[in-house]
UniProtKB/TrEMBL annotation:
Residues that span the membrane, as ranges: 71-91, 98-117, 148-168, 180-201, 248-276, 288-312, 324-345
Enzyme class: transferase
UniProt organism field: Chlorella variabilis
Keyword Manganese among record annotations: no
EC number(s) stated in the UniProt entry for this protein: 2.4.1.-
Main localization category: endoplasmic reticulum
Membrane topology: Multi-pass membrane protein
Keywords: Endoplasmic reticulum, Glycosyltransferase, Membrane, Transferase, Transmembrane, Transmembrane helix
Name of a matching Pfam family: Glyco_transf_22
Alphabetized InterPro entries for the sequence: GPI_mannosylTrfase
Protein name as annotated: Mannosyltransferase
Amino acid sequence: RLLSAFLNIIHDCDETYNYLEPLHYILFGSGMQTWEYSSQFALRSYLYLLLHAPPAVAPALLLGAGRKLAGFYLLKAALGLASAATEAWLYRAVARRYRPAVAHALLLFLCVSSGMFAASTSMLPSTFTMYALTAAAAGMLEGRPYPVIAAAAIGVVWGWCVAGFAFLPYALWVLVAAPLLPAVGMLLLSLVGTLGPLVLVDRYFYGAWTASLWNFVRYNVVGGGDSALYGVEGPAFYLRNGFNNFQLLLPLALAAGGSGAMLCLLACVSPLYVWLAAITALPHKEERFLYVAYPLVCLAAAASFVSLLDLARRLLGAVLPRRAAALAVRAAAALFLAATCLLAISRTAALVINYGAPLQIYKHLPEASGPGQPVAVCVGAEWYRFPSAFFLPGDRCRLRFIKSGFTGLLPRQFDPGEGGTRAAPPHFNDRNREEAANYWPSAAGCAYAVTLQEEGQGQGGAFIDELGDTDDWEAVAALSFVDNARSPQLFRAFYLPRLSAVRNRHVQYVLLRR
């Protein structure tokens, strides 16, 4: 998990603009605001941000404001440790209740999974709820209903409320496993303990009493808005993404119900199937939605793997000598595990090597601190890969958007003069309509720009960004970046030494200076 903290990329611009940027504003006074944080709409709770604030601000408090990038990585490390803690709890619960083979397979799958590498250190509500669901699964296996109730309340109220569907199987288990009145009392206590701080924190930051939890549900679930405005995918979307992130483990996990795996383990992993069905039914799909159940994919795969080995021993034992049957099963298991590890490492390496440039290019910016005018760092078509203001050195750098091919609604800087977090900027809407006022008036005001170029192209020759005269720019740094549109899917999704470098098409991820 610590490797993920320091090597993982940012997989979704939602992490940057809906979480890292407002967190940066709270801690350091600058950051981008999305329409969801406008007090007019108030879809996001600031409590979620405050939960992540201590590790993000600690280096700046101890070592000076210039250490905010260290705060980013300390935050990621804290997320990795939180994930490791809940995974360790799940491993211990499985080891205590079932055969060591299931627990050992689970541990291996959790450690090598490229899906867990990606999800475990993302600052996203789906990841936070993943921690809670993993803790609830461990509590269920240990036969402890009250931690299950508490984990569900924390995951749904402080994390991602839509993921309440994933906890429904555990709610049914609690009804069977716990006395009704104590369970209801624990539920009420958990709701008061989670909803109370959420409402009070949002009252402070939005400047009015608001129900961000209900606002979010109303917009995304009960028809107050239209999440499909942000993209629609087909029913096979999560199967494709699941295979990319879990490879051979995904079919094992989906087959767990018919593999003869232990009944209680099947009940424990049932939220995976409930959640997969629920999010597949939604028209708007994102890879991060499935993060919630990633550890359960590993658990279901582990149970299925051990059950299939048992079945193979019985079948081969009927036609081969006992020793030969055991050796054959061990050899097959070793080959499967080796293939699983190699595929997972290949996928993780592809993500880091092929798409790591956005997190590295901003480190080449010089520090701009002290009195003076803000330094405009401009992005066009690459706006969605910006890793957050934690990567802008000093306290005067500001992200600005210049016109590109994008036609949706972009964020804008939080403005303390308008009220900061309490403001309702007029240039926001909930229909994803483009607002011209959210763009920087002209690239002439940009001190730096980040864009993509063909290798060997002139300094200002961006793909579709309106950067002006190419003679006005010089390259500060350029890093290799895989061009998805012109690279074979296999070689861009999985890293194959030598072959990937030859088969993939690369462009340059460039930092330009005016």
